[in-house]
C-alpha cells in the first residue's frame, strides 16, 4: 500500500473508533487527569462516533478529511475529544489539495498535526495524549525515508506509540501516584491500533461489546479550583485565536481551542460559564453549549448514598445546600437569538435582561435535551440504587413528561422515580430541599416520596410582579390585559392552583400596596395552618427580597430557609424586579 485515498482514511477512522469503543469502560476507569471524573472513554467514543456517523466519504483524501474535521469539531467532547479534533484539523490543514497521500505526505501531515495540537492548548501538559501524538509523529518523520509502504510505516509507528504510552506513567506525577497510564493517551493508541486492524484486513465486528472489569483504586484529594467543564461550538464571522485565548484565560484554566473552516470549539474549566459564553457570542453564533459539573461527578463516583436526587433548573434552591447534598440539576433551555442557553449554567438574569433590553428577540424556553438527561442518568445508574427526579409542575411545562419518557428506558434495570411537584420556583426548591434532607437522614426512597407527595399539597407561592410587561411579552398574559395593566401601573400577584396551573391572586397599584396584600395573605396562613418553612426568591431585586425577609421573619417567627435568584426560565415570565415568597404549611390547606 503505497498510497492512502479518502476511502482508506474513512475506513481507518471507523476501525479506530470501534477499537476505542470496546475499551470505553477501561478508559473511564483510568481517567485521573486533569480531573478524575471518569468520562475520558465516553468523550472519545462520542467524538469518534460523531465522525463515523456524520462524515462523508470521498475518493479524495483531502475532501474526506475536510468532512471528518468538521464532524470532529461538532462532536468533540471533553479535553480528550477536543484535542483529538484539533489533531484531525492539523491533518486537514496539511492535506490541502491531495487526492491521495504517500509515506512522505502522511508523515508531514502528522508533524503539522502536532503543531496544531500544541497550539490549541494554553498550557500543554506532557505525559498525556499530546506526548503520544508527538512521539508517534516524530517516528513517522524520522523513518519516512526508510519505508515506501504506508502500511509498514504505520505499523512500526504504532509500536513507538505504545512505548510512549507506557512512559506517561513516569512523566506525570498524578499518573505515577495512581500507577496508571494516561487515559486520553491510551485512547489515541487504541485508535492507532484500529488503523492497523484495517491495514491488516482484519475483520471488525461493529456490534461487539466487551465487558470490562477494572479494580484500580484512584487517589485524588486535591481541591477543585474551577468547578465546571465548559465547552462551546461557534460558527464564526471573525476569529483571532490569540485574542480569544487572552479573553478566556481570565475565566479559568485547561483552555483548549480548535478551529475548522467555519466552526471553532472551545474547552475550559471555569466557575463562570456565563462569562465564557458572553465572550464566545462576540465571535459568531453559538451552535452548542455544554457544561459539566466536575465536582458533582467526582462526588457521585465516590458516593455512599443509595438515592440520587435530580431536579430541573426551575427549582430555586440555595446553591451551597445543593452542592453539599449532591443535588443534580438538569437545565431547561433558553432560546435566544439563534442560540440555546442552559438555564442557570450559561445564562443568568443579569445577562438575560441586558439582551432583552437591547431589543434582541424575546427569549422563549424549551424542554431539557433528551441527550442531556440520558448522559446524566447513564452516570448515575451505576452509582446509586435509586434515582429520584423531582420536576416542575406538569401543567406548567412538559419537563415532567420528558423525564418520565427517558426514565422508562432504564426501568427494567434501575429504580427511577419521577415526581411531579405541582410547583415551581421557590416551592419546588423547598420540596427538593426537604427530599435532600430526608435522604441525608437515611430515609428509604419510599419514605422520601411519601413525604413529598403529602407536602406538595401544603405549598403556596405568591409572586409580586413589578409590571405586566414581561408576562405579556412572554405570552403568559394576553396583550390586551397586559397593556391595560401597564397603562394604569397595576402590579399583579401571581400564584399556582393546587393542580399546578398559573393563576392571578390579586392586584395593587403600588409596591407598598402589593406588599401589604402579601403580608395580609401570609398573616392569615400563619393563624390558620402555620408555616413549616419558607423561602424568598427574586429577579435582580435583592433589596426587596431583604425587605421581605425582615417583614416575614417577624410575622412567621423564623427566618427563611434561603434567599436566592430565580431561574432565567421563570424570569422570562415574571420579569425584572419580581419577588416571591414560597411556603409549606404545617397542616393541609383546606380546599
Description:
With 591 residues, the protein is an alpha+beta fold. It folds into 4 domains: 4-199, DhaL domain (Serine Threonine Protein Phosphatase 5, Tetratricopeptide repeat), CATH 1.25.40.340; 224-293, 2-Layer Sandwich (Alpha-Beta Plaits); 294-457, Rossmann fold, CATH 3.40.50.10170; 458-585, Hypothetical Protein Tm841, Chain: A,domain 3 (2-Layer Sandwich). Helix 1 packs antiparallel against helix 3 (40-54), helix 3 (40-54) packs across helix 4 and helix 8 packs antiparallel against helix 10 (183-199). The N and C termini lie far apart (81 Å).
Keywords, please?
six-stranded mixed sheet, Alpha-Beta Plaits, Rossmann fold, alpha+beta, 49% helix, 18% strand, Serine Threonine Protein Phosphatase 5, Tetratricopeptide repeat, elongated, four-stranded antiparallel sheet, 24 helices
Please specify the SSE layout and strand pairing:
Blueprint: E1 4-5, H1 6-22, H2 24-30, H3 40-54, H4 61-75, H5 78-94, E2 100-101, H6 103-120, H7 129-143, H8 150-171, H9 173-178, H10 183-199, E3 228-236, H11 241-249, E4 252-259, E5 263-270, H12 273-280, E6 284-293, H13 294-301, E7 307-312, H14 319-324, E8 327-330, E9 333-336, E10 339-342, H15 349-357, E11 364-366, H16 370-380, E12 386-391, H17 399-408, E13 415-420, H18 425-440, H19 445-455, E14 459-464, H20 469-473, H21 479-487, E15 491-496, E16 502-508, H22 511-528, E17 531-538, H23 542-556, E18 563-565, H24 568-574, E19 579-585
Parallel strand pairs: 7-8, 7-12, 12-13, 17-18
Antiparallel strand pairs: 1-2, 3-5, 3-6, 4-5, 9-10, 9-11, 14-15, 14-19, 15-16, 17-19
Amino acid at each position: 500500500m503505497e498510497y492512502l485515498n479518502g476511502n482508506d482514511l474513512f475506513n481507518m477512522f471507523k476501525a479506530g473508533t470501534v477499537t476505542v469503543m470496546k475499551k470505553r469502560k477501561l478508559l473511564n476507569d483510568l481517567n485521573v487527569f486533569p480531573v478524575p471524573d471518569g468520562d475520558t472513554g465516553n468523550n472519545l467514543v462520542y467524538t469518534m462516533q460523531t465522525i463515523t456517523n456524520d462524515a462523508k466519504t470521498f475518493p479524495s483524501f483531502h475532501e474526506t478529511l475536510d468532512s471528518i474535521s468538521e464532524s470532529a469539531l461538532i462532536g468533540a467532547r471533553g479535553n480528550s475529544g477536543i484535542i483529538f479534533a484539533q489533531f484531525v484539523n492539523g491533518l486537514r490543514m496539511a492535506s490541502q489539495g491531495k487526492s491521495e497521500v504517500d509515506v512522505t505526505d502522511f508523515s508531514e501531515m502528522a508533524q503539522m498535526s502536532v503543531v496544531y495540537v500544541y497550539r490549541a492548548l494554553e498550557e500543554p501538559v506532557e505525559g498525556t495524549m499530546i506526548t503520544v501524538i508527538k512521539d508517534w509523529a516524530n517516528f513517522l518523520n524520522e523513518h519516512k525515508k526508510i519505508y515506501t509502504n504506508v502500511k509498514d510505516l504505520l505499523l512500526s509507528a504504532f509500536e513507538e506509540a505504545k512505548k510512549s504510552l507506557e512512559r506517561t506513567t513516569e512523566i506525570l506525577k498524578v499518573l505515577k501516584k495512581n500507577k496508571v497510564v494516561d487515559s486520553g493517551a491510551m485512547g489515541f493508541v487504541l485508535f492507532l491500533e484500529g488503523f492497523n486492524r484495517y491495514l491488516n484486513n482484519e475483520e471488525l465486528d461493529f456490534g461487539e461489546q466487551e465487558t470490562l472489569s477494572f479494580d484500580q483504586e484512584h487517589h485524588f484529594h486535591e481541591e477543585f479550583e474551577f468547578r465546571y467543564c465548559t465547552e462551546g461550538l461557534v460558527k464564526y464571522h471573525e476569529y483571532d485565536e490569540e485574542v480569544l485565548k487572552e479573553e478566556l484565560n481570565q475565566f479559568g484554566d485547561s483552555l483548549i481551542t480548535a478551529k475548522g473552516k467555519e466552526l471553532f470549539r472551545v474547552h475550559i474549566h471555569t466557575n463562570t460559564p456565563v462569562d465564557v459564553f458572553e465572550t464566545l457570542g462576540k465571535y459568531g453564533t453559538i451552535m452548542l453549549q455544554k457544561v459539566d459539573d466536575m465536582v458533582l461527578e467526582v462526588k457521585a463516583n465516590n458516593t455512599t448514598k443509595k438515592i440520587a436526587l435530580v431536579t430541573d433548573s426551575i427549582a430555586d434552591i440555595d446553591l451551597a445546600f445543593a452542592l453539599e447534598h449532591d443535588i443534580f440539576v438538569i437545565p431547561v433551555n433558553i432560546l435566544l437569538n439563534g442560540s440555546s442557553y442552559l438555564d442557570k449554567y450559561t445564562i443568568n438574569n443579569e445577562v438575560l435582561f441586558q439582551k432583552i433590553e437591547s431589543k434582541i428577540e424575546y427569549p422563549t424556553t424549551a424542554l431539557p435535551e433528551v441527550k442531556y438527561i440520558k448522559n446524566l442518568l447513564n452516570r448515575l445508574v451505576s452509582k446509586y440504587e435509586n434515582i429520584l427526579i423531582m420536576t416542575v409542575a406538569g401543567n406548567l411545562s412538559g419537563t415532567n413528561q420528558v423525564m418520565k419518557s427517558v426514565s422508562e428506558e432504564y426501568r427494567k434495570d434501575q429504580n427511577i422515580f419521577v415526581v411531579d411537584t405541582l410547583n415551581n420556583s421557590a416551592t419546588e426548591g423547598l420540596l427538593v430541599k426537604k427530599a435532600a434532607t430526608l435522604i441525608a437522614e437515611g430515609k428509604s426512597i419510599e419514605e422520601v416520596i411519601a413525604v413529598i407527595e403529602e407536602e406538595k399539597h401544603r405549598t403556596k407561592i405568591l409572586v409580586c410582579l413589578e409590571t405586566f410587561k414581561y408576562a405579556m411579552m412572554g405570552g403568559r398574559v394576553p396583550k390586551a390585559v397586559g397593556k391595560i395593566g401597564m397603562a394604569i401601573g397595576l402590579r399583579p400577584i401571581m400564584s399556582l392552583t393546587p393542580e399546578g396551573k398559573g393563576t392571578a391572586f390579586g392586584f395593587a397599584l403600588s409596591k407598598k400596596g402589593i406588599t401589604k396584600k402579601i403580608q395580609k395573605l401570609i398573616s392569615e396562613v400563619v393563624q390558620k395552618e402555620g408555616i413549616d418553612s419558607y423561602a424568598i426568591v427574586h429577579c435582580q431585586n435583592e433589596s426587596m427580597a431583604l425587605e421581605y425577609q425582615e417583614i416575614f421573619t417577624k410575622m412567621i417567627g423564623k427566618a427563611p430557609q434561603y434567599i436566592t435568584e430565580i431561574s432565567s426560565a421563570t424570569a422570562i415570565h415574571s420579569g425584572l424586579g419580581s419577588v416571591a415568597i414560597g411556603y409549606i404549611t404545617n397542616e393541609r390547606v383546606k380546599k
